[in-house]
Amino acid sequence: MSRKIFLLAAGLGFLMALIAAYFGSSIQNAKTNDPISYLNEMDHIHYYNTALIPQLNYRAAIVTLPFVILLTLVEIWVLIKTPFRIPRNISIGLLVACGLLILISILTLNDPSGYDFSIWGYFWMAMGLFIIAGNILSGMIKKNPSR
Q1: What's the pLDDT tens digit per position in 4-50?
Q2: First to last CA, the chain
Q3: Which helix (H) or strand (E) holds 46?
Q4: Which residues, 6 or more positions from 104, have their beta carbon under 8 angstroms from its beta carbon?
Q5: In angstroms, what is the C-alpha Rg of the chain?
Q6: Alpha-carbon gap, residue 75 to 91, rounded angstroms
Q7: Please, are residues 91 and 79 in contact by the beta-carbon 8 Å criterion?
C-alpha cells in the first residue's frame, strides 16, 4: 500500500483541525466581544455578532462534514486494503474517531444553538490531531514479514 494515502488522510485531518480552530475562535470572539465592543470599534477590530453564533455553529458543521466523510472513506479503504495488522488496528481506532465526529456533526446540524462550536471545536481539533498522528504512524510502519 502506498504511503501517499496516509499523507492524504493526515493532510485532510490537518485541514479539518484548522477549519475547526477558525470557527471555534470566531465563535469565542463573538461571545467575548459584547462587553468590550466599543473598544474594538475604536481599534477597528470587527468580530461576528453574538446573534450569528448558531449560524456559525451550523456553518462549521457543514464545512467540516465533507472532510470527516472523506476521512472515513479513506480509513475504510485502508482497513480493507492493508495486509498488516497494526495499520488496520490504527484504522479501526480512527474510524471510531470519525464516527464520533459524524455524530457530533449531525447533532450540531440538528440543533446549532445547543452545540456550541467554541466548545465542541476543541473536540474536532483533538480528533483531527488523532487522525493526523494515526495516519503518520501508519505510514511510517515498515513492512514486517511476520505481519
Answers
A1: 889 999 999 999 999 988 888 777 777 766 555 555 555 555 555 66
A2: 14
A3: none
A4: 115, 120, 123, 124
A5: 18
A6: 6
A7: yes
